Amino acid sequence: MKSGKLIVLTGPSGVGKGTLVRSLLTRHPELHLSVSVTTRSPREGEIEGQHYYFVDRSRFEQMLEAEELAEWAEFAGNLYGTPYFALQQGIEEGEFILLEIELEGARQIRNKFPEAVRIFILPPSWEELERRLRSRGLDSESAIARRLLRAKAEIEAAGEFDFQVINDDLEVALTGLESVLFVNC
Ligand SMILES: Nc1nc2c(ncn2[C@@H]2O[C@H](COP(=O)(O)OP(=O)(O)O)[C@@H](O)[C@H]2O)c(=O)[nH]1
Ligand SMILES: Nc1ncnc2c1ncn2[C@@H]1O[C@H](COP(=O)(O)OP(=O)(O)O)[C@@H](O)[C@H]1O
């Protein structure tokens, strides 16, 4: 059986991970996104089972206890995790599975799946990151402040990753990701 690849995408909130992933999935139907479980409330337009599985804290804790999560972390006051079921099917079928997760989770994946390819998405500047977070218009001021605080620590860890891609011009960043996925992997 052909074995698939795990691709981890990490980067500070607002850097454009979601935007990049959406474009990659449209351009490359052979890529699959692992859908995470979260205790965060759905944002406007988010769909259950497509963007996240939205659960309450006690359900999340049940999943943790039952060892149903491949990795998990707390981010800006909410819990996020990757269910094993999101990984298993694709890997067995020889597909590329994208995980769009934060730093702590990326470290857990490195320990459990050392063969995973880990990519860090960087902003062109701190000012632009802040501008993108605000322009998205989806988070409260306090949620934005928590995300910015966390962003500093995440950017400092960018060197731990196998590849770094700067998301300045979107097309250039997409081409950079494609060359990592389809040439270097
Ligand atoms: N460790 C971990 N992080 C996740 C998971 N799903 C999403 N995240 C990360 O959690 C952070 C917050 O995600 P979200 O609330 O959707 O906010 P956004 O990144 O600002 O759009 C982001 O860094 C995501 O990459 C997961 O399953 N595990
Ligand atoms: N290359 C880019 N240039 C300008 N704006 C971008 C770029 N990539 C993403 N954005 C915008 O930045 C904001 C945050 O992007 P998003 O994909 O939600 O980030 P993340 O998933 O990393 O939190 C969105 O408004 C998005 O349209």
Automatic annotation (TrEMBL):
Superkingdom, taxonomy of origin: Bacteria
Location(s), subcellular: Cytoplasm
Gene Ontology CC annotations of this record: cytosol
SUPFAM superfamilies: P-loop containing nucleoside triphosphate hydrolases
GO molecular function, one term: ATP binding
SMART domains, sorted: GuKc
List of residues binding ATP: 11-18
EC number: 2.7.4.8
Family matches, as InterPro entries: GK/Ca_channel_bsu, Guanylate_kin-like_dom, Guanylate_kinase, Guanylate_kinase_CS, P-loop_NTPase
Record-annotated Guanylate kinase-like domain positions: 4-182
UniProt keyword terms in alphabetical order: ATP-binding, Cytoplasm, Kinase, Nucleotide-binding, Transferase
Catalytic activity of the protein: GMP + ATP = GDP + ADP
Primary location class: cytoplasm
Keyword Nucleotide-binding belongs to the record: yes
Protein role: Essential for recycling GMP and indirectly, cGMP.
Stated family: Belongs to the guanylate kinase family.
UniProt cross-references to HAMAP family, sorted A to Z: Guanylate_kinase
Protein name as it appears in the record: Guanylate kinase
Organism: Tychonema bourrellyi FEM_GT703
Lineage: Bacteria, Bacillati, Cyanobacteriota, Cyanophyceae, Oscillatoriophycideae
